[in-house]
Structure formats: structure tokens, C-alpha cells
């Protein structure tokens, strides 16, 4: 069928390429492998924890076992998830604002060297201020509610997003610049068709970093401001020596952080393709 | 007419405050519809010259005319197609979307569809493949289709097959000649391979380095269409030797010294 003088030797058969279905199947299998590994890890941890509590006969007001914690989790589920929902709302609003601010500043700093020189030191300055130091100030400005949480998440979160996005915007190679230039592209077309797509994997790396620190900073803000989130719940449970509730809240926030991290990582991987 | 005229072009770059002359008073012209090759050692500024024609840089002195107009006017009128040494495809776009990129940027409806160009470069069936699924030679075919999609009058190629193996490269060169004849563009190919320059071009412009100057011109009077067999002919070898002669003219005295003999 093929002629002896084949002029297209470098042409592989397109039917050999993996299909969409095969790729989806491979991804699903990888996901289940991941879940089962995590379940195994958590299972071992819980078994060790339960074993240690039973072995050393630790009283419940010092540390509860897995069963007591589970009971608190079931009995006070509404309270726990209510508090978590409150915190996550703050995290979501804060991250959305952080992304908006980070991308706006990132684009401005990438496109304008004078703006970068003038404002970048200011931004880095703001970043290096410890959140704990400005927290009282934030509480004065934003009050003892969601406002302080949102502000804290923005301050902590926007910087990694901005730095990574800028690195992404600048990752466009000189030949891509030349390609767009020769085609007569405007700066806007270069931004939309090259800079932003090339920056996406970098942006999601920044978002992943920001997201994981966002939950931490939101909970910390709640400790200080007294806003009724999961951070405050842990603090209060400790105050009342309600150890099963505290353990349940800690476990819930850990699981939440892990889920958020997993989702952000999956999103990063998915969209980096 | 859309020939290329380069008159007294000098290009200097500033490197750490020092002025570096990349090209020195270049005079060169490429007739409309012809195929020119630029050959020279590394650092002779052949890629820079190509970028001056494409209005990526402006010359420090002298003037360039593309079809009688300044390069900027030609560029903004989509008269220039550029093929880089690396295919420079956008990895998230399919073959079809990559080829269509200049159409999107220009906002025009071309006479030939991206699909027609994909057929021209022999990639039918791969319209929806991503660049990562293609071999190096196929990626470069996509880059050629993209460069031609707005039917430019001038096709500039900067060592387009430099990263390919010898066998693929020769086949791609034969293909490129076919595509060039079909598209009817004025073509300039930058290369550092003597046989490639002679095989492809109507005229080979030889540049010397530090600073880049035109060392000489070799007219290639081989008939077209050209095939690989042509490379075995005595006439081909004679032309190769003419190019070699101009390329190494500066070195003839040095040839007697032993350490340069094999260089």
C-alpha cells in the first residue's frame, strides 16, 4: 500500500494517538489510586491514635479517642459545618478579591516598567509586614466579623498569586513575541492569546499556594477577631475543655485544607495541559 | 512588485554600554518571486538581517524596502510570513487553531482556509492534533502553514529545519520548494548548510562575520523543479564549491597552519 518512495516518513499514524476516552479512563484510575492511598494513610493514623489513647488510658478531658471525636462530630455537626461554612465564605471572598487585585497589579507591572519600579517596593513592603502585627489595625478598620477575615486572606493570598502570574506573563519566549509582532498583533492580543494562556500554569501554582495559606490566615484572623468561624470554634472548645469537639473541629479543618489543596492541585494540573 | 531591497544597512546593538556592530553596510536585493539563501558562520548577523526585513528591529543606518515599501508597512499589511528555527506553536491550540492564529490576529478572512494550508503542507488528518503529539518535522510544517495562511508576499525562514535530522531535512526541503512554488512568494532562507543553500536558492548570499558583511554572491542556475538526485550532479558540486570558496576566502592564508587545517 505504501509506495517505496515515501516522502512523509515523519508522519505517524494519527490512529495511534490516545483517544479522549482512554485518557479519561487513565485519569480516573489514577484518582482512585490516590484516594485509596490517602484512605490507607488516614486509617493507619487513626488506628495509632486510638491505640495510644487506649494503651495509656488517656482521660477524655486531656485527649479523646477516635470514637469520642466521631460522636462529637455527629452530635455537633450543625455547629461544626456552620462554623466551617462561615470560614469558607470568608476564604472564598478573600481569594476572589486577592485574585482580582493580584492579576490587575500583575498585568500593570508586566506591561509598564515605570509602574513596576514605582509600586513594586510598596507591594513587597506590604507583604513583609507580619499579619499578626497589623491584625489589631484590621479589626479596628473592618470590625469583629467577616471583614477582618477577608482582609487577612487578601493580604496573605494576593502576593504569591501576583508573583507567579507575573512570572507566567514573562515566560512568553522571544520567538512568540516575534511571531505576534510579525503578525501585527496589539499588546491586548498578545496578552489574551499568549501571555495569559502561558501564565495559567504559573497562576494556578500561585493560587494553590495562596489557597492553602488562606484557610490558615482566615482561622488565625478568627482567633483574634472572634468572628464565629471554625478557627474561633477550636479556640472556644479549648477554652471550655470540650476536647472531643475541639478534636472534631481540628480534624474537620485538616480535611478541609487537604480537600482544598487537592482541588487546587487537580485544577492546576488539569488547566496546565 | 514585492522584491526585497536592502541598501547600506548597518545594525548596531548596545550590550552593557558597548556598541556591537552586527551588520555593516549590507547591500542585497531579492527579486520578486525568487528564492534567496543567506549563509554564513555564526555571528554573521544573518538572523538579524531577517528580523530587520520583518520589522522586528529597525536598522541603525540604511534602508530596507519590501515591495517598495518600508518593512513596517509590509508587516502591518500582512505581507510577511516568518518561520522560526523552533516551530513556536502554541501548545494548547490544535494544528488548525495554530494555523488560524494570524487570521485571528489580523481579523481578516483569507482566500485560503487553514484546512487548505494544512493540506498543502501534507498534514491532512492532523487538524485536531496538539503540537505535543507531532514530530519535530510535522511541527515545522504547521509553522510553515501558519506563515503562509494570510498569503504573504514574502516568506522569511530562519534555519527552519536546523533542529531536524539530515534525512527528514532533505525531504522537508523538497517539500518546501513545492510549497514555495505553489504559494508564489519571495523567499529568504537563512541556513548554515552549503548544500541546503545551493539546493534551495536561485541566489546564495554569503555573509562573513564580525561584523556581518556580504562576502559574495553565488548565482544558482540549476533547473527547477529540483529533486534530491540533483545533488549528485557535477554542476551542483561546482556550485557548492563556489559557495565554499567565498565562505572560506578569508581563511585561505590560514589554511597552511596545521591547527586550522581541520577547523
Give a brief rundown of this model.
The complex is a heterodimer of chains A (273) and B (263). Chain A has 10 helices and no strands.
Structure in words:
The complex is a heterodimer of chains A (273) and B (263). Chain A is mainly α and 273 residues long. Chain A has one domain: MetI-like (MetI-like fold). Chain A has ten helices and no strands. The radius of gyration of chain A is 25 Å and the shape is flat. The N terminus of chain A is likely disordered. Chain B has 263 residues and is of the alpha/beta class. Chain B has a domain of 182 residues: 3-Layer(aba) Sandwich (Rossmann fold). Chain B is built from nine helices and nine strands. Chain B has a six-stranded mixed sheet with strand order 5-6-7-3-8-9, with helices on both faces. In chain B, helix 3 packs parallel to helix 5 and helix 7 crosses helix 8. The longest helix of chain B is centred in the middle third of the chain and has 18 residues. At the A-B interface, helix 7 and helix 8 of A face strand 5, helix 3, helix 5 and helix 6 of B.
Number of strands of chain A: 0
**Total strands of chain B:** 9
| Largest inter-chain contact set | A-B, 24 and 36 residues
Strand content of chain B: 15-25%
Order of strands across the main sheet of chain B = 5-6-7-3-8-9
Please tell me the overall pLDDT of chain A. Answer: 87
Under the CATH scheme, the architecture of chain A is Orthogonal Bundle
Molecular shape of chain B = globular
Mean of residue pLDDT values of chain B: 89
**Considering DSSP H and I runs of 4 or more, what fraction of the residues of chain B is helical?**
25-40%
Tally of helical runs of chain A: 10
Proportion of residues in β-strands of chain A:
under 5%
What is the second-level CATH architecture of one domain in chain B? 3-Layer(aba) Sandwich
N-to-C terminal Cα separation of chain A, in Å?
Answer: 37 Å
Structural class of chain A: mainly alpha
Rg of chain A, rounded, reads 25 Å
Q: Percent helix among the residues of chain A?
A: over 70%
The CATH class of chain A, by name, is: Mainly Alpha
How is the quaternary structure best described?
A: heterodimer
CATH level-4 homologous superfamily of one domain in chain B: P-loop containing nucleotide triphosphate hydrolases
